[in-house]
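Format notes (please read before filing issues)

Several people have asked whether sequences and structure tokens are stored in separate files. They are not. Every record keeps both together, in the order shown below: the sequence lines, then the token lines. Line labels are part of the format and must not be stripped during preprocessing.
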Amino acid sequence: MNFSSASKAMTAALYRANQGFRWNIIVLALVGVSALAVTPAAYADSYSFSFSGGGMSGSGEITYSPTAVPGVPGAYQINGISGSFTDTNAGVSNAAILGVQSTTLPTVNLDGTFLPPGGDAAGLPYSFDNLFYPGGNSPAVCPPPAPGDPEPPYPFGGGYLDIYGLYFNVAGGYGVDLWSNGVVPGFGLTYGVGDALNGTGLNTYGEPFSGTSVNVSVAPTPEPGTLLLLGTGMIGFAGSLSRRLRKRA
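Then the structure lines:
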């Protein structure tokens, strides 16, 4: 072998070694990213949400207990919320949502109806139960009117919330109640929202039979299982790539 051919052979060997090093770095990077994706995270059932109507709007994420609420089909208790809220009527702009107004689980009657566990007793202007229905099929939960009660029955259900709704607190002393009116004949599925300042009601929009509705959108957030599939897929790809590179070397 002359000097020229030896030099070429050495250059080729160095090139292959350099290429192998570069691909090893890529493979290691893929494995590292997949490891992060597979790392277990604290599990919580959560949905992103947004709503708007009547000058009021908000968006963020809610979390709820994975344990079904006894006696209320399809219901789970909301235990966390984050995001921001705006009410142009009150001059509130992108105020931070601080959390859910706490309340107990409802005491459910044999027919599946119940009185709202939150509201007047806490000095708040709106009734609420903080129940979430991932299937979008909330039942009619209002009990029949008591004898002598002038209020008519409210036998309508449907939506991700029920007629009592979700009450959450907002920076600046504000509170917000978001509820579903259910599927009302002649109106379809509608939602309503109302806010308050230091316990005094301010604005409402989308009351039952008003012909108006708050636009509500919800979507499940990715579960850990989705990230696990992503991570294992990347590991498999990295392993396959590594085997191909070894065959080429």
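For reference, the curators noted about this record: Strands lie at 45-53, 56-68, 76-87, 92-100, 131-132, 166-170, 174-184, 188-197, 200-205, 215-220. The first strand starts at residue 45 and ends at 53.
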